[in-house]
Amino acid sequence: MNSISLLGRNLARTALRTQAPSTTTTQCARSLPRNFFRRSMQTRPQPNQQQTRMPTQEDLRAQFKNKNRNTLYYTLSIILGTVALSYGSVPFYKMICQQMGWGGQPISIHSGQYEEDDIASRLIPITDSRRLRITFAGSTSDVLPWKFTPQQREVRVLPGETALAFYTATNLSKEEDIIGVATYSVTPGQVAPYFSKIQCFCFEEQRLNKGETVDMPVFFYIDPEFLRDPNMSKIDTITLNYTFFKAKYDKDGHLSPVA
Questions:
Q1: With the C-alpha atoms ordered 100, 106, 111, 114, is the resulting torsion angle positive or negative?
Q2: Which residues pair with 194 in a beta bridge?
Q3: Beta strands in 69-187, from DSSP E residues, in sequence order
Q4: Cβ distance 259 to 248 under 8 Å?
Q5: What distance in Å separates the CA atoms of residue 51 and residue 69, rounded to the nearest whole number?
């Protein structure tokens, strides 16, 4: 019996020794996955909330307002630029035409194109050339209550000879003073570079009181170079035409025509 009990104790001790390491191994095996997943969860990158957040109705409305505002600004800029260009291009175009004689615009000798000595040499009549017939015409815009007519139907001049003509303007309005501005042209248009004005009332403010009548002079000559141009050989008649437009000052103090 003693031997049997001793054998039983040894077996129990052996069982305990073999069971203890297995229990420790099992606990370690169970604890490692927990630590591993805990660390992996801690090191895992968090999703960006701003990137994943869906836009709200207010965000979409704000974006739509911004787009509309930008479109409105661009449209207004284009409109303002077009208006500014239209107002600025008219006097600029007239200035270029006066300098170059384009579009039937006569050249002014005060524009700086000719020197004084050169001008004096051009004001010598070419007596052995044919005389040119200069006719005059005048008109007004529909909104200008003026009567505007030339005092003479025509004059005949030699190239290089100065000539003086007059127009008469009358303000037919009995209620208000009116400002007028005149533009002019020469036909045929190719004669314009040789039609030079010494004095003219064009492109300047002409204020007429109600019922007032004034005489407006035009002092001009035909450049002798006209005779050296083969394209002018068959031209004997030249027409000088003036048109008056009603004008007023805008809020910036600039004189502009009234449509």
A1: positive
A2: none
A3: 107-108, 132-140, 146-150, 154-157, 162-171, 178-187
A4: no
A5: 26
Q: Which domains does the chain have, with CATH numbers?
A: 92-257 (2.60.370.10)
Residue type, 98: Q
Proportion of the chain in helix, strand, coil states, percent, rounded to 5: 45, 30, 25
Tokens 């127009």 belong to which residue?
Answer: 167
Q: Binning pLDDT at 50, 70 and 90, where does residue 63 land?
A: confident
Q: Reduced to 3 states, what is the DSSP secondary structure of residue 146? A: strand
Question: What DSSP state is assigned to residue 23?
Answer: H
> Max Cα separation, the chain?
171
Q: What three-state secondary structure class fits 150?
A: strand
Indicate the pLDDT class of residue 225, thresholds 50, 70 and 90.
Answer: very high
DSSP state of 251: T
Report pLDDT for 215: 97
Q: Compute the residue count for the chain.
A: 259
User: pLDDT tens digits for 92-145?
Assistant: 445 544 444 444 455 555 444 555 556 777 889 999 999 999 999 999 999 999
Q: How much is the pLDDT for 113?
A: 52
Q: Compute the distance between CA of residue 93 and CA of residue 74 in angstroms, rounded to an integer.
A: 27
- Looking at residue 136, its amino acid is F
Q: How far is CA 49 from CA 45, 52, 55, 151, 175, in A?
A: 12, 5, 12, 88, 76
The structure tokens listed for 141 are: 């815009």
47-58 average pLDDT score: 64
- Its pTM stands at 0.56
Given a cut of 50, whether residue 191 has pLDDT beyond it is yes
- Please give the angle made by the CA atoms of 48, 52 and 58, to the nearest 5 degrees: 120
